[in-house]
Structure formats: C-alpha cells, structure tokens
UniProtKB/TrEMBL annotation:
Annotated GO MF terms: aspartate carbamoyltransferase activity
First-tier enzyme category under EC: transferase
Protein name: Aspartate carbamoyltransferase
Key words, A-Z: Pyrimidine biosynthesis, Transferase
PANTHER family according to UniProt: ASPARTATE CARBAMOYLTRANSFERASE, ORNITHINE CARBAMOYLTRANSFERASE, MITOCHONDRIAL
Pathway membership: Pyrimidine metabolism; UMP biosynthesis via de novo pathway; (S)-dihydroorotate from bicarbonate: step 2/3
SUPFAM superfamilies on file: Aspartate/ornithine carbamoyltransferase
PROSITE patterns assigned: CARBAMOYLTRANSFERASE
Gene transcribed to yield this protein: pyrB
Residues passing through the membrane, by range: none
Organism: Pseudonocardia charpentierae
Length: 321
C-alpha cells in the first residue's frame, strides 16, 4: 500500500488487515510504562492541515510518536501557503525535505489524490524524495472537502468491532448532514464493504445528489429506523460549509433529527451511539445520550490513535516487515 486516499482503495481483506493490525498494536502497548514501539524509527511523518482539526491531527501525531517516528506539524497559516505557495510546490518541498509520509487535510475535494499523483510522478521521474532521488512519499487523506475521510471510517469500524464483536450483519444508521459529510461517505462505503447494512437518515435537503447509487438505504423518519439499529452514528451539522438555508432552524433540526433521551429509548439495549465530533450538544445529540454507557464517542477517539498507527505501519513498514 503506497497511499491511503479513499476507502474504495480497500477491499474487505485489506480493511480487515488494517483493523487487525490496530488491535495488535493496541495490545502491544498495554502495560507499557513508556508507550513507545521502535517500528518506525528513522521515519518522518508530516501533518499538513489546511482546515481546523483536533482529533485527527493530534491522533496522527501521537500515532507516529508512539511508533518512534519523527512527527512534524505544519500549519498552513504559518507556512509558505500564506505567501501564495501552491499545493504542488508544498508537496514537492515536503518530499525533498525528507517527509516519508504526508498526512493532509484540505478543503478541496481531491486534494490528497493530486498530492499522491505528484509524489508518484516525481518518484518515477527520479526527483529527490525522502531517501534520495526516485524515492516516493506516501500520502494519507485526512479529509478532503466533502469527499472522504478514510481513517475516520476505519476507526468507526474498529469501535463497532470492539463493542459488538464484528461489523458484518449489523444494521448501522448514519444520521444528519450527509450532504457536507466526508465521514458519512467514507463510512457508507467501508461499512458496506465489511458486510454491514447501512441506512442514511437525513432531511431531503441534506442528502447529496447521486446518493441512490451508494450501497445503502435512505430514510427520513429517524424514530421509525431506531428500533432496528445496532449502531446509530450522529453527524455534525457543518454550518461552515452551508451557503443557504438547509433547514428552518437549529431547534427544528433538533426536534426532527436530534438524538434526544426519548428517541434513544427506541434503540435496542445493545445498540451503540457514535459521533465523529466535535458534537453540538443539544442539537445533534442530547448531553445525557452523549455521556451514557451506550455512547462510544471517547472510544472512537482512543481507537483513532491505534488505527492511525496501523495505517502508518502498513504504509511505511509493512513492505519491509
């Protein structure tokens, strides 16, 4: 595996291999006073985020550090991007400086794919890479516009496996702002690949064009769907991407599509509640539901570190292991 750009790059076997590696790395760290593995010693991981992030950026940095890689965060606002440097030149510069892997988040859909294309082309042309002329830099998509967020989908699948023993055969509801959510798109395709039945529940105004071709079912009545779900994933309403009125008000949205305590009671006893964060409490999810034993929101965050460790391992050490 050279890059991780989309969950559609993964079949069931490769996705399961990543999740299994994450489990093994988690076990390897248990009981260690110093949480360090020598796996990626001598490797350099650069995180380049053009959009705000807490969970994804920090967990990638921790993942690299726990495997002894040198991790460097480059803030777009404090880099040459602020002087007008192109994404193409930024990617080439980071590769030439010695980045073995670039983890990138960008507001433009397809940005990570372009960086990977340039990295492969430069390596084939003999350009200077992290270990000399002709070597290639790996690229990980940490979220590109409204397109994809593959490592979020992987950590969500890992959390479902932890809580329910597996993904295959489970009915998983994804609720809310599907239109602007790269998390929703990646989860639909990955969870379906792993054998889950996925249902999207959203206002018609927050469903993307072409959703009928996705491997899922679409509904608009949340209360009708809840009793049959093993997992319900509440999405963040991405107001920063909305240019227009997609619903009358936040109160109206909460009434129709928020996971209140009353609605949560419709779920089966074993059901798991997920949210990719950050949560808008009281609108998307009631505080009592977010903090209930059925909530695996913090487990998602913890699993994110181990899943991203696994991704870095498969990209930077797997071929040599």
């Amino acid at each position: 595996m050279r890059h991780l750009l989309s969950v559609t790059d993964l079949d069931a076997a490769s996705a399961t291999a990543l999740l299994d590696t994450a489990d093994r790395l988690k076990q390897a760290l248990l009981g260690r006073e110093v949480r360090k593995l020598p796996t990626l010693r001598g490797r350099t991981v650069v995180t380049m985020f053009y959009e705000n992030s807490t969970r994804t950026r920090v967990s990638f940095e921790i993942a690299g550090k726990w495997m002894s890689a040198d991790t460097i965060n480059v803030a777009a606002s404090g880099s040459s991007v602020g002087k007008g440097e192109s994404l193409r030149d930024t990617a080439a510069t980071l590769a030439a400086i010695g980045a073995d892997c670039i983890v990138v988040r960008h507001p433009a859909s397809g940005a990570a794919h372009r960086m990977a294309h340039w990295a492969d082309r430069d390596a084939a042309a003999g350009a200077v890479g992290p270990t000399g002329p002709g070597s290639a830099t790996s690229v990980v998509n940490a979220g590109d516009g409204t397109h994809e967020h593959p490592t979020q989908a992987l950590l969500d699948a890992a959390t479902v496996r932890d809580r329910l023993g597996g993904v295959a055969g489970r009915r998983i509801g994804i609720v809310g702002d599907v239109l602007h959510s790269r998390v929703a798109r990646s989860n639909v395709f990955l969870l379906a690949t792993l054998g889950a039945e996925v249902v999207l529940v959203a206002p018609p105004t927050l469903l993307p064009v072409g959703v009928a071709a996705w491997p899922c079912r679409v509904g608009t009545d949340l209360e009708a769907e809840l009793p049959g779900l093993d997992v319900v994933m509440m999405l963040r309403v991405q107001a920063e991407r909305m240019h227009g009125a997609f619903f009358p008000s936040s109160r109206e949205y909460a009434v129709r599509y928020g996971l209140s305590e009353r609605r949560a009671a419709f779920l089966p006893e074993h059901a798991v509640v997920l949210h990719p964060g950050p949560m808008v409490r009281g609108m998307e999810i009631a505080p009592a539901v977010a903090d209930a034993p059925s909530s695996a929101v913090l487990a998602q965050v913890q699993n994110g570190v181990h899943v991203r460790m696994a991704v870095l391992y498969h990209l930077l050490a797997g071929a040599a292991a």
